[in-house]
Every structure is written in structure tokens, then in C-alpha cells.
Structure to design on (231 residues):
């Protein structure tokens, strides 16, 4: 009767016109929340799998089918941010993607700090053992600055 | 509460036929969670609304009203522990 195709895709194939409209609106809100939370850290290749995860979420699917806004409201920024964070954190590939982006960003900041020092300063900090802590402080400050 | 909220009894209660109910029970593509009673008896299967809906929509007697009723049951069971 029903073909056992890939789960998730199958759910999306079965939507009516109104449901598709609601899903589109939800997707837009989801991508805005994703951009607010993670900026450019998440690769564009993760968009499609995360959209499927969004449709598979029971609260989101209930909103898509009934239009009920008790649990999910696309206009509620805080609620959308919480939902987006939950969906991204539960996707293993997305988490790995974020970890990698964070590691490469840290390395870039570290290089930036070391190149800003003069060779004499670098040697002096290295000799008194404060180079590592200074680098860490700089990286943390820059990351906080970006988040704030 | 997990997303597995609907049992076949719920599908029967909204007015679907025995045939429809059985076809949900026997569909191999469905994920389900089995929950037992307080004394370990029963063992009822619970399904996800989004997966069940896809099967029920193939039945001509499945109405939008039934769809809304199932959605309400699903939502109320998910929200049960949160209040």
C-alpha cells in the first residue's frame, strides 16, 4: 500500500498545498534563527538534512498540519531559536560541522595573535611562560566579542 | 514525552475501520515504541503522528476532522508532562 521509502522524505511528499505553505514559512523562520545562532559556521550542505529534521520534529509537524501555534510559532523568535538549537544539536553531522568550524576559527585567531607580536615579544613571552595563556586569552576575548 | 503518542486504539476511536487500523499495525515501515502497563502487562504499540498520517491519508474515508482529532490527541499527550 505505502512504499517504505526513506523516512522524512516520505513525510514531506504527502503534504497538501496549505501545509506546504506553512512548512515554507517555518523553513524561513528556521533559517533566520540558524543564521542568528551559528552565523556562517554551519555549512550550506547541512541545510537540506536539517530541514528534514525540522519536518520530522513532532511539534513542528503538528504546526504544519493543523496551523496550531501553541508549541511552535514561526513569528516567535525565542521559540524558534530554542527549536533550532535543539534540532542542530541532535544532528550529529551538524555538531561535527560546528566543532570543525570552531577549531579552524580558533587556529586562525591564534595565528593572528602570534603574527601581531614582534619576534622579541614572542621570545620574551615564551621565556617567562606566559605565551600560551596570552594566546588563549586573546582567542577567548575575540570569540566572546563575536558572540556579543 | 516522546513523539510516539498514538496507539491503534486511538485510530479506531476516531472512526477508522478495522481494516485501516490493521494496516497501520502491520505496516513494516513504521517505527513504534512498546509500552507496558503498571504490572508489566499489555504491551501496546505507540506510533508517531507524522508516520501514521501518511498511511491514513491513503484511505478515502479518512476526513480532515479525523486528522485534527488525531493531531489534538498527539499534542495533548506530548504536553501532558510539561504542565
Amino acid at each position: 500500500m505505502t512504499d517504505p521509502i526513506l523516512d522524512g522524505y516520505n513525510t514531506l511528499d504527502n503534504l497538501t498545498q496549505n501545509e506546504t505553505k506553512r512548512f515554507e514559512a517555518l523553513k524561513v523562520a528556521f533559517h533566520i534563527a540558524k543564521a542568528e545562532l551559528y552565523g556562517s559556521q554551519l555549512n550550506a550542505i547541512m541545510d537540506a538534512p536539517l530541514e528534514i529534521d525540522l519536518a520530522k520534529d513532532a511539534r513542528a509537524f503538528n504546526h504544519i498540519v493543523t496551523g496550531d501555534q501553541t508549541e511552535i510559532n514561526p513569528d516567535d523568535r525565542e521559540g524558534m531559536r530554542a527549536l533550532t538549537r535543539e534540532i542542530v544539536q541532535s544532528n550529529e553531522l551538524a555538531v561535527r560541522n560546528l566543532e570543525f568550524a570552531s577549531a579552524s576559527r580558533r587556529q586562525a585567531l591564534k595565528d593572528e595573535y602570534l603574527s601581531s607580536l614582534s619576534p622579541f615579544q614572542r621570545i620574551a613571552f615564551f621565556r617567562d611562560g606566559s605565551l600560551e595563556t596570552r594566546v588563549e586569552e586573546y582567542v577567548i576575548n575575540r570569540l566572546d566579542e563575536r558572540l556579543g | 514525552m516522546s513523539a510516539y503518542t498514538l496507539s491503534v486504539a486511538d485510530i479506531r476511536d476516531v472512526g477508522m475501520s478495522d481494516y485501516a487500523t490493521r494496516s497501520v499495525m502491520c505496516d513494516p515501515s513504521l517505527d513504534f515504541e512498546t509500552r507496558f502497563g503498571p504490572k508489566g502487562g499489555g504491551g501496546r504499540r505507540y506510533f508517531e503522528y507524522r508516520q501514521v498520517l501518511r498511511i491514513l491519508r491513503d484511505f478515502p474515508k479518512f476526513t480532515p476532522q479525523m486528522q485534527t482529532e488525531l493531531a489534538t490527541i498527539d499534542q495533548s499527550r506530548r504536553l501532558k508532562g510539561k504542565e
Remarks:
- Residues 108 and 139 of chain A are 9 Å apart (CA to CA).
